[in-house]
């Protein structure tokens, strides 16, 4: 579950309420790049994490979900929410995965996905599910490289300015750490 860094391995930790303001900053910065790219606004997607408050972080945890984080220099640099699906027995969902743009391309995202899959598998789940912006092909390719498979593609949820793909990681399979 570790990625090797010059100062030692990065680790995923479960974050409590005192870290919510840091998580909020990561979510806002992390999803701002997507907002710009795909034309998301407060009008067409008011619940997008860019527009969240600390109260929304607490609500995401209360679904319930575990709030996972990776720290760099003792500050939260990446986060993800993982918990049981409310729609499907035996399935967990990964939501709001974000890495601060300053800390991308160092394996933090992959580490968070790996740890989320481990939490789901430890609970006996058979799959870890995500919903992504379908037009974000780079993201989709990345998840496919980690072992996720498409389960539905191009669903529209007006007024969202993008369509949504759902992907699942079968938990009998492990995330491929070699890429
Ligand atoms: C997706 C994300 C979490 C990956 O974080 P990361 O720490 O950079 O991930 P890793 O270092 O493990 O892997 C990097 C790879 O992610 C892939 N990737 C996925 N989305 C990407 C994006 N929007 N821009 C650039 N690379 C992206 C690339 O293949 C990249 O490979 P590279 O480093 O060779 O360029 C991060 O890009 C992010 O926060 N994006 C915005 C929020 C988002 O789309 N979250 C997903 C919600 S389902």
TrEMBL record:
Looking at the Swiss-Prot or TrEMBL record, what is one Pfam family this protein matches? Acetyltransf_1
Keywords for the protein's UniProt record, in alphabetical order: Ribonucleoprotein, Ribosomal protein, Transferase
Tree of life domain: Bacteria
Give Gene Ontology CC terms: ribosome
Q: The N-acetyltransferase domain covers which part of the protein? A: 10-170
A GO molecular function for this record?
N-acetyltransferase activity
The question of whether Nuclease is a record keyword is answered with no
InterPro entries with a match to the protein in the record: Acyl_CoA_acyltransferase, GNAT_dom, NAT_camello-type
Listed name of the protein: Ribosomal protein S18 acetylase RimI-like enzyme
Which species expresses this protein natively? Propionicimonas paludicola
Question: What does the organism's lineage look like at the top?
Answer: Bacteria, Bacillati, Actinomycetota, Actinomycetes, Propionibacteriales
